[in-house]
């Protein structure tokens, strides 16, 4: 019998892979930043919304993971028309993740998903000028139960060119919006509104862990052949 011992290098990611499946069952979500102080921006009353919305934001090697948890009993108030990609209006319950990757107020990006899984993306320049000709490749998934519905979004770091930055964190600016179609209302955190002269500049500045590429462990292992 001959014995061959081969030392190989195996690379695997440090973190469990986040999947946009609407379940939020990965342990990494415990470290997410949470946002729930939404206000009504359409109509622009700035009142407390009639239904709760919680958003989780998590930076992982794959990209930015965002989860919207939307209180809404399944009592007939949910509206579910399906729309084509980049439709300017969904006519359905929906959520939007808006982000300025560099936090400079120069350009923002919109990633929107309806309760039926219809989706829209585009960019925003000059504070309020939106263009839906830009299309990115990103993941999204919507799940529902009797009391709430959840939209999970994963935006890869490679989706746009962005400043590298220094250190372990990256400063970005974000806005989270939710459309409650049956009441013709839009909720937002923060209170940034595209109907004002400033929009991108009013996004909330947050710090997230900085990744430029997948991180790997390099570990040796032995294969025995006989």
Structure report:
The chain has no helices and 15 strands. Residues 1-16 and 214-226 have low confidence and may be disordered. The protein is mainly beta and 226 residues long. It is globular, with a radius of gyration of 20 Å. Strands 3, 6, 7, 8, 9, 12, 13 and 14 form an 8-stranded antiparallel sheet that branches.
Topology (elements, then pairings):
Blueprint: E1 4-13, E2 33-35, E3 39-42, E4 53-60, E5 63-71, E6 94-100, E7 107-114, E8 119-125, E9 129-131, E10 139-144, E11 148-156, E12 169-180, E13 185-189, E14 204-209, E15 216-225
Antiparallel strand pairs: 1-15, 2-4, 3-13, 4-5, 5-11, 6-7, 6-12, 7-8, 8-9, 10-11, 12-13, 12-14
Distance between the termini: 6 Å
Question: Biggest sheet, open or closed, and with what strands and sense?
Answer: 8 strands, antiparallel
Number of strands: 15
**Tell me, what's the shape?**
globular
Structural class: mainly beta
How would you spell out the order of helices and strands? EEEEEEEEEEEEEEE
Radius of gyration: 20 Å
Low-confidence stretches: 1-16, 214-226
* Share of helical residues: under 10%
Beta-strand percentage range? over 45%
Tally of helical segments: 0
Q: pLDDT average, as an integer?
A: 86
